[in-house]
Design goal:
Chain lengths: 309, 90, 378
C-alpha cells in the first residue's frame, strides 16, 4: 500500500501530549496537534496570552513536547523576530520560530507587531487559531467576532464590526506565504504548514477553530460546525504565495465548489448549531451574508490576478 | 536546588504526559470503539483534541486512552460507520 | 590601541554597545535617543559591527525583540527615552521575569503633555520597581564604560537580570566631551562572549521545555524571591566589575556610589547622573568660600546602595538631595529613597529635597550654591 498522508501523520508522532487542560472538544488543540506534526521537534512556539497559555497545563509540567516561550499579549511576533534574528546571527538554520496565538493576541492587540514582522519579512511563522472572541477571559468580542454573535461584551448580539479579514491583510503585505485553514480539514492544514516550512521568510496561517463553550454548541460538534463554515462559504480555504511582484492565489480543494454561490449551503445551517447565534436578528444575518459575499469578491479578485499572464 | 542557585529559580516546565492530571475524570460519556465494525479510517484518531486515541499504524484498530479521554465524543460524531458507541459513566 | 576623541553621550553609548560586541539590536526612534541607534545601524550596514539590526515598529516590540534574542543566546541591546520607555514598559518588566540580561541605554527626557524633549529623570525612575539594575552615568566616558560594565554585571551567573544605563537628554546625549575609546582587545579581556548559563531557546542545543507557563501563587512567590536574591547578589558583582574595570582601564567611576570630598563634609549632596556631575563642578567654588560640602554621586539606583548612603549621611550634619524628577504628592524620588534609608539605618541627619531642572531647565552652579546656602542659614 503506498504511503499516504495519513501514514505520515501517524508516523510523525504526537507533540501534543494527552492530559492537557483544554476544554473538551477544543478546536484549537486539534489544530495544534497537526501543526506540530508538520513542524517537528526543531520548533520554538512563542505563545502570547491566550487559551494556549492555559491549556499547556501548569508548572512544573507542560503538555506540549516542543520548546515554548510564553510572552506578553501584544509582543509575540516581535519576540519571535528577536529569536529568529538571534538564531540566524548564531548560524543556526532550520529552526521553526512559530507564533501560536489566538485572534485576540494576533488580530487585535498584537496586530501591529504581526504587521511589523511581516513588513520586515522576518523568517517566522505566525499561526493564528481563530475562535472568534476572547475565550480565555470569558468570551468577550474581538475584532474577529462575526456580526450578530453573542459574547459577554455583546450580550444580545449587537453588530459592532465586520470580522477583520486578517489573512487578506497579511497577503497585502507581500509576504512569501499566507494561507487559511480549518480544523475540519486537518490534512489540508498539515500540508499547508509543511509548505510554509519550505519557505524562508514570513508565513501567516489563519485557522478556523470552533470553541464549544464560547459558541455554545455541544462538545462533540466541533468538526461539524467547522465543516459547515466551509460548506456555507463562511470560511474560505485558500493559500497564496508572493513571488517576484506577483501573488499566486489558489482556492484549496474543499472550498473550490463554493466559488459558485449557488453550491453553498444556506448560512442558517452554520448558525443553527451555535447558541451564540440563537437570537440572531434578520439584520445580522443580512450583514453576515454581505460579509461572506465581500470575502468571496476579494478571493475572486486574487484568483483573477493570479490567472493573468 | 542548591543554596547557590536560589537567585535563579526559573519558571521552566518539562513536557509530561498528564501534565493537567488524569483528565479522563472529566468524562460524562465514554466512547467505546466496536472492533468488528471499525474500518481503520482513523477519523476518530485524527480529530481527537486530546491525543487520547492511540494508533501506531494504519493496520490497527485505534485504542482509546481512558486515562485522558475527556469524553467530548467528537470521535463518536465523525466515525463514518458508527463503530463507536457512547456509554454514560456518571 | 585606545583612541581619544571628542564625542557626544549618544556616540559614547553606541561605542559602549559596539565594544561589548552586541549581536542583536532592536530599536525604534525617539528624540533624544535616536542618534545612538543611528550610529549602530551605520556600523552594522558598513560591516564594522557583526550584529543584526531590527528596525521594529514600536518600543514595545523593541524590548520584545531583544528579550527573544537574548533568550535565544545572544547579547542584545536597545535604547529609548521618555514616552518610548513608557510605551515599552510592559516588556521592560517582562525582561526581568524572563531573566534576559539585556542592556538598554535610556536618554532621560521629560514626559508629555505638553511635549518636551529635554532632560528629566522621571522616565527611568518610573521603572524603579521592575527589577532592572540601574546605572546613572555622570559624563560621556561613564556612559560608554557603564554599558560595558552593565553587560558584565547583567550576564554574571549570580545575577542574570537586565540593566539600564541612563544619560541625561542633551546635557550628555548631545554634548560632546573628550572620551577615551578603549582598545577592543582590552574590552574582550574584561567582557567574555555571552554564554547563557540558565536557559537557551534553541532546540538544536537544548531539550524541549516551556518557559513561563502558569504557576500557583506559592511557586510564583519563590520565583519572585529569586529575583530579589539576584538583585542582592548584584551589589558585590557591581563592586567587583568596577574594581576590575579600574585595574584594566585605569578609570574609576565609583562602584555603587562615587564619593567626592565626603570625608570632612558637613553638607553632602546626593544626586544622580549629570546632575551629580554638576554638583561636583560646584564644589570648588563652595569649598573656596569655606563651606565644607561633599557630593555622593549615586551611580547605581537599583540595587539601592542603602548601607553606603547611611554611612555617608551619618558623617554629615546635613544632606541635600537634588532631584531632577518628582513623584507627585510625595517628594523627589531619590529624596524619598534616601529618607527611607536613613530611617531604616537610624541616621537622624536632616534631609532637604531640592527639585531642579524639571523639563530640561538648566541646573547652574548658582542654583546649587543657593541650595547649600539656604541650608546653612537654617
Amino acid at each position: 500500500m503506498p504511503k499516504t498522508i495519513l501514514d505520515e501523520l501517524i508516523e510523525a508522532g504526537e507533540y501534543l501530549l494527552p492530559g492537557h487542560t483544554a476544554c473538551p472538544g477544543c478546536g484549537s488543540v486539534i489544530a495544534l496537534r497537526h501543526v506540530l506534526k508538520a513542524l517537528g521537534k526543531d520548533t520554538i512556539l512563542v505563545i502570547p496570552a491566550s487559551c494556549s497559555s492555559v491549556y499547556q497545563a501548569i508548572y512544573p509540567k507542560v503538555s506540549i513536547n516542543v520548546m515554548i516561550y510564553n510572552v506578553a499579549f501584544a509582543s509575540a511576533a516581535a519576540v519571535a523576530s528577536g529569536i529568529s534574528q538571534a538564531l540566524e546571527r548564531k548560524g543556526f538554520e532550520d529552526v521553526n520560530v512559530v507564533v501560536w496565538g489566538g485572534d485576540g493576541g494576533l488580530i487585535d492587540i498584537g496586530a501591529a507587531s504581526v504587521s511589523g514582522a511581516a513588513e520586515r519579512n522576518e523568517n517566522i511563522f505566525v499561526i493564528c487559531y481563530d475562535n472568534e472572541a476572547y475565550m480565555n477571559t470569558g468570551i468577550q468580542r474581538s475584532g474577529s467576532t462575526p456580526p450578530g454573535a453573542r459574547t459577554t461584551t455583546t450580550p444580545i448580539g449587537k453588530i459592532v464590526g465586520f470580522k477583520k479579514p486578517m489573512a487578506y491583510i497579511m497577503l497585502m503585505h507581500g509576504v512569501p506565504y499566507v494561507a487559511t485553514a480549518n480544523v475540519a480539514y486537518p490534512t489540508d492544514l498539515y500540508e499547508k504548514v509543511k509548505k510554509a516550512k519550505s519557505i524562508k521568510g514570513f508565513k501567516f496561517i489563519h485557522i478556523f477553530t470552533p470553541c464549544p463553550p464560547g459558541w455554545r454548541f455541544d462538545d462533540s460538534k466541533t468538526i461539524e460546525v467547522a465543516r459547515l463554515a466551509v460548506e456555507t462559504g463562511y470560511w474560505i480555504l485558500w493559500q497564496a504565495e508572493y513571488r517576484h511582484g506577483r501573488i499566486h492565489f489558489e482556492l484549496s480543494p474543499p472550498s473550490r465548489p463554493y466559488l459558485d454561490a449557488s453550491k453553498r449551503k444556506p448560512i442558517e445551517e452554520f448558525l443553527k448549531f451555535q447558541g451564540r447565534f440563537s437570537k440572531i436578528t434578520e439584520e445580522s444575518v443580512k450583514k453576515l451574508r454581505e460579509w461572506i459575499e465581500y470575502q468571496w469578491s476579494i478571493a475572486k479578485r486574487f484568483l483573477d490576478m493570479s490567472a493573468q499572464k | 536546588m542548591s543554596k547557590s542557585e536560589e537567585h535563579l529559580l526559573l519558571p521552566i516546565s518539562h513536557p509530561t504526559k498528564g501534565a493537567g492530571g488524569k483528565t479522563g475524570t472529566w468524562r460524562v460519556f465514554k466512547p467505546v470503539i466496536i472492533e468488528e465494525k471499525c474500518i481503520k479510517c482513523m477519523m476518530c484518531w485524527m480529530y481527537c483534541p486530546d491525543a487520547a486515541i492511540e494508533v501506531s499504524s494504519r493496520q490497527e484498530v485505534p485504542r482509546v486512552n481512558y486515562d485522558y479521554c475527556k469524553g467530548c465524543l467528537i470521535c463518536y460524531e465523525v466515525c463514518p460507520v458508527k463503530a463507536i458507541r457512547k456509554e454514560r459513566e456518571v | 590601541m585606545a583612541i581619544y576623541d571628542v564625542i557626544t553621550g549618544n556616540d559614547a553609548a553606541a561605542w559602549g554597545a559596539r565594544l561589548s560586541k552586541v549581536e542583536v539590536i532592536a530599536a525604534y526612534p525617539i528624540t533624544p535617543q535616536t542618534t545612538i541607534v543611528e550610529k549602530l545601524a551605520e556600523w552594522v550596514e558598513k560591516g564594522e559591527l557583526n550584529a543584526k539590526f531590527i528596525a521594529v515598529e514600536s518600543e514595545h516590540s523593541a524590548m520584545a525583540a531583544v528579550i527573544g534574542a537574548s533568550a535565544a543566546g545572544v547579547r542584545a541591546f536597545t535604547a529609548t527615552s521618555s514616552q518610548g520607555l513608557l510605551y515599552m514598559i510592559e516588556m521592560v518588566s517582562w525582561a526581568v521575569g524572563a531573566r534576559t540580561p539585556v542592556v538598554m541605554a535610556i536618554v532621560n527626557r521629560a514626559l508629555g503633555p505638553p511635549w518636551n524633549i529635554w532632560s528629566e529623570h522621571t522616565d527611568a525612575l518610573m521603572t524603579r520597581d521592575t527589577g532592572w539594575i540601574q546605572f546613572w552615568a555622570a559624563n560621556n566616558q561613564e556612559v560608554m564604560d557603564s554599558i560595558i560594565q552593565a553587560y558584565r554585571v547583567a550576564e554574571d551567573k549570580k545575577v542574570l537580570l537586565p540593566a539600564m544605563v541612563m544619560l541625561g537628554g542633551f546635557v550628555l546625549s548631545h554634548t560632546a566631551m573628550p572620551v577615551k575609546i578603549h582598545d577592543q582587545n582590552k574590552v574582550d579581556q574584561y567582557l567574555s562572549p555571552y554564554e547563557p548559563p540558565h536557559y537557551v531557546l534553541n532546540p538544536k542545543i537544548s531539550e524541549a521545555f516551556a518557559y513561563g507557563n502558569i504557576l500557583f501563587p506559592w511557586d510564583y512567590a519563590k520565583v519572585r524571591l529569586s529575583i530579589e536574591k539576584a538583585m542582592r547578589n548584584a551589589v558585590d558583582v557591581i563592586k567587583r566589575a568596577a574594581k576590575e574595570f579600574h585595574e584594566i582601564f585605569g578609570i574609576w567611576h565609583g562602584d555603587l556610589i562615587k564619593e567626592v570630598n565626603t570625608d570632612d563634609a558637613e553638607i553632602v549632596i546626593f544626586a544622580l547622573g549629570a546632575v551629580a556631575e554638576q554638583a561636583e563642578a560646584t564644589l570648588e567654588v563652595l569649598r573656596r568660600n569655606g563651606i565644607k560640602v561633599g557630593v555622593a554621586k549615586i551611580r547605581v539606583f537599583r540595587p539601592f546602595p542603602k548601607e553606603e548612603i547611611a554611612k555617608i549621611a551619618d558623617k554629615a550634619s546635613h544632606v541635600i538631595v537634588i532631584d531632577r524628577d518628582i513623584s507627585f504628592g510625595w517628594d523627589g524620588i531619590l529624596a524619598g529613597e534616601v529618607k527611607a534609608t536613613l530611617h531604616e539605618y537610624k541616621v537622624d541627619t536632616p534631609v532637604t529635597t531640592k527639585i531642579m531642572g524639571i523639563g530640561g531647565d538648566d541646573i547652574l552652579p548658582e542654583h546649587i550654591e543657593k541650595a547649600v546656602k539656604e541650608v546653612i542659614k537654617k
